[in-house]
Amino acid sequence: MSSPIFLSLVLFFASSLFLQGALGEIVCEDLPTEVCSFSIASSGKRCLLENYENNNGNTGYQCTTSQVMVERMSEYIETDECVKACGVDRNSVGISSDTLLEPQSVSKICSPTCYQSCPNIVDLYFNLAAAEGVFLPDLCEKQRSNPHRAMIELLSSGAAAGPAASENLAGAPAPVSI
């Protein structure tokens, strides 16, 4: 006769196989818009919230797969705790490096709660900063030691030119949007 523990293990194993098959892969287009932003598909590509105009002329939202590949993560839906800790908004359409020009946003992203516990969001902003010629760990260090100076250095570097500066810099790179 089989022991109750053995039967329980067999039942647990069979249930886990069924659950894995039922859940399947994360496909951005199948995600609800409420969890789309800051999610990563099974393919390793970031999910992106986009808006569209339907036949009635109303704006709707849909989750799509971006072309941005995440090297070390896949099948990931960001937690509400990280969204709050990092000060990001799941309902934002697209994402821009302009966030790096907002001291409050940089402060949240560089906070220990976000920077040390939310690798998905930090990776995203690391790449946005790099596209602007800024090394996020350096920016965070400057933000911790002297927040005002960090913003002055970021603006004066030309890496992330603000609206007034972009008028003066012909051919300056536009903010990166995903």
Protein model, in words:
By secondary structure, this protein is α+β, with helices and mostly antiparallel strands. The protein has 2 domains: 22-77, no CATH class; 79-168, no CATH class. Helix content is 44%, strand content 13%. It has a two-stranded antiparallel sheet with strand order 1-4. A two-stranded antiparallel sheet has the order 2-3. Strand 2 and strand 3 (59-69) form a beta hairpin. Helix 3 (103-110) packs across helix 6 (136-145) and helix 6 (136-145) crosses helix 7 (147-156). The protein is globular and about 50 Å long. The model is unreliable at 6-22 and 159-178 (pLDDT under 50).
How do the helices and strands line up, and which of them pair or pack?
Elements lengths: L3 H20 L15 E2 L4 E9 L5 E11 L6 E2 L2 H7 L16 H8 L1 H4 L3 H13 L4 H10 L1 H10 L6 H6 L10
Antiparallel strand pairs: 1-4, 2-3
Helix pairs in contact: 3-6, 6-7
Task: List its traits.
two-stranded antiparallel sheet, two-stranded antiparallel ribbon, 8 helices, globular
The end-to-end distance, rounded to whole angstroms, is: 59 Å
Contiguous helical run count: 8
User: What form results from the Cα inertia axes?
Assistant: globular
The chain-level mean pLDDT equals 78
Query: What's the helix-strand series?
Result: HEEEEHHHHHHH
Q: Mind summarizing the main beta sheet?
A: 2 strands, antiparallel
- Rounded to an integer, what's the Rg over CA atoms? 21 Å
Secondary structure tally: strands: 4
Task: For the largest sheet, list the strands in their spatial order.
Answer: 1-4
| Uncertain ranges | 6-22, 159-178
SS-derived structural category? alpha+beta
Proportion in helices? 40-55%
Q: How much of the polypeptide forms β-strand, as a percent range?
A: 5-15%
Number of domains: 2
